[in-house]
Amino acid sequence: MDTSNSLYHTPNTGPEPEPEAEPAKPVQKRRRFSIEQKRHIVEDALASGDSFSIAARRHNINTNLLFKWRQQYEQGQLEPVAEAPNLVPITLASGDAEALAPHQDRFRRSARLEIVLPNGHRLTVIGNVCADALRTTLECLSP
Q1: Are 97 and 91 in contact (CB under 8 A)?
Q2: Rounded Cα–Cα distance for residues 57 and 63 (Å)
Q3: Which residues pair with 82 in a beta bridge?
Q4: pTM, entire model
Q5: Angle, nearest 10°, between helix axes 35-48 and 63-74?
Q6: Alpha-carbon distance 126 to 49, whole Å?
Q7: Are 109 and 128 in contact (CB under 8 A)?
Q8: Residue 116 forms beta bridges with which residues?
Q9: Contact 124, 112 (CB under 8 A)
Q10: How would you write the chain as a 3-class SS string?
Q11: Where is the composition biased (Polar residues) (predicted)?
């Protein structure tokens, strides 16, 4: 049977051409947002009056992430981090120690005093503690 005049005959032109491969999408690294950025985005979403979905799209983030940040914001977890105070080493001259001698009545006996700084460092004093020195230290370390 001759199929050259057949309606259903397709000539053999060789192998099918391969479809063009799409270029691979570049791998995006996970974005990291600082506490200040998170707080700014949440405050913008709350102030705009838009839905959180619209606010999330405006900042190119997932809506669920914005809801999570809002919860952290309401719990006070997105407050600015206080900088740790800078401590300066001091030394007493020999004359200064003698000048403190008359004020020894202000010293109180304490077995142990421990101050935990915001950066995690601990200041531990064992023995006599001068109330004025302690007060001054706490005033300098408080935010």
Answers
A1: no
A2: 8
A3: none
A4: 0.42
A5: 100
A6: 56
A7: yes
A8: 122
A9: yes
A10: CCCCCCCCCCCCCCCCCCCCCCCCCCCCCCCCCCHHHHHHHHHHHHHHCCCHHHHHHHCCCCHHHHHHHHHHHHCCCCCCCCCCCCCCCCCCCHHHHHHHHHHHHHEEEEEEEEEECCCCCEEEEEEEEEHHHHHHHHHHHCC
A11: 1-13
CA distance 112 to 106: 17
- What is the chain's length? 143
State both tokens at 125. Answer: 């004093």
Can you tell me which residue has the tokens 């001259």?
Answer: 93
Digit-by-digit pLDDT tens for the chain (143 residues) are 555 555 666 666 667 766 677 777 777 788 899 999 999 999 999 998 889 999 999 999 999 999 999 999 999 988 877 777 777 777 766 665 566 655 555 555 545 777 777 767 777 777 777 778 777 877 777 66
Residue with tokens 């005049």: 5
Residues 34 and 40: their CA atoms lie apart, in Å, by 10
- Residue 127 and residue 107: Cα distance in Å, rounded? 10
